[in-house]
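User: Structure tokens for both sequences below?

Assistant:
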Amino acid sequence: MHCPFCQHVDTRVLDSRVTEDGTVIRRRRMCEACGERFSTVETMDLKLPVVIKNDGRREAFDARKLRAGFDRALQKRPVSDGQVEAAVHAVVHAVRKSGERELPSRRIGEFVMEQLRKLDHVGYVRFASVYRSFQDVADFREELDRLEREAPGEGQLPLLEEPAPPARRR
């Protein structure tokens, strides 16, 4: 590492600290020639795949857009920021783990739906309605029925309230 003050080629690491999530290392350094101190920050440089959009365009993967999609689906839902961050991290991990250089946006959408299904059923249905282009109420009902069959009573409130039985007269 070159010294930013005198451009000497030899610097010594005085202290290293890793962030809580383990993705960044901050190093305190000192130049052997001039004695000046400075900090460097190291991050992982992992290449994420290019996203192939439905219309054929290609875009760089953007975790901020991913987070915005989660935020829209989970707006005003009882899901903590930490849970959303963990879900975003899980999707990014799945994208990296795929090993693909190019990934269709549909596949990323499936990763998102998998995480939303675990987090919040209402958020899942919101996202699914846009992702799968629901056309009418029947599409919603079909997705709700599928969700109820696949994940009955996972500790979340029911998606559709059962009608109360009619009161009996005496």
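Moving on to the next sequence.
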Amino acid sequence: MSGQAQAENRSFAARPWWRWLTRVLTLAFFLLVGYLLLNQVRSVEWDEVVGAMRSRSSSELWLALLLSATSFALYSCFDLLGRHATGHRLPVPKVMMINFVSYAFNLNIGSIVGGVAFRYRLYSRFGLDADVITRVVVMSMFTNWIGYVLLSGAVFARPPFALPDEWRLGVAGLQALGIALLAVTASYVLLCTFARRRSWEFWGKELTLPSLPLALLQLCMSCVNWLLIAAILFVLLRQQIAFPVVLGTLLVAAIAGVLAHIPAGLGVLETVFVALLSDRHPKSDLLAALLTYRAVYYLLPLAMAALIYLIVELRAKKDGRRMTKQT
């Protein structure tokens, strides 16, 4: 952050009305997060989750946990691409910590609060200005979804399952969608390769096109992450359903969860998996696998992220009191 920006921030912080507004907004943020977390916890059928996990073998659980940890470690590197693109100097471990916390909250309480609000709050805690944070957030989210577009295009172009009759899209529609998604990915790669103009301005914000190597790295990281998530479900389903089928079902469920605007996609994931796979696998085992998946990929990381976030806030408050005493 520049010296002028720091001076402006100190000037604002010195004003009583600004301090009170900051406190009110902070309290409102914590109340919102607490409310969303409480709703999330209350919506979980804990007896069913425990029972589902007990029905898995220890080797399945450990492998699912390992894949989950690998996925979170990879996703926590997404913001490093934004660090490279913006040139900010926040240490790599700190960037990965922020990315991990925001991703865990994003999965459980939605992208607006988890993916965006937590990033803005944590990055601003460590001195980044809003423009840099915006570019990091946009690049991270785009990285996640551009890989989704490529994988979905590849899978949907030759669907590994038949859609239910009541789904209006149909197999032909799904194939057409897959081809369109592959065309979108190819267009993005070509644009990154040959475009002469590399930046545009939208609503006062600059959008810069990445280089071809960075674009390919985005695609690689995102695709591998989606494959890891599908591998968790594949393991928990005891490898009794072909991996391409599990992957395709996950990709359908992911976009359905986004369109439904339900935190953590509660009910959406289960509905899609049952609709597409119940003719291949017992419904009870499907639901048991999905409940275990939620426990290892949603709830356990959420508990860790909440603890990390609490520690960051307590340290920031302690540092703020120390600086107040010194001034």
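User: Anything stand out in the second?

Assistant: Residues 1-5 have pLDDT under 50 and may be disordered.
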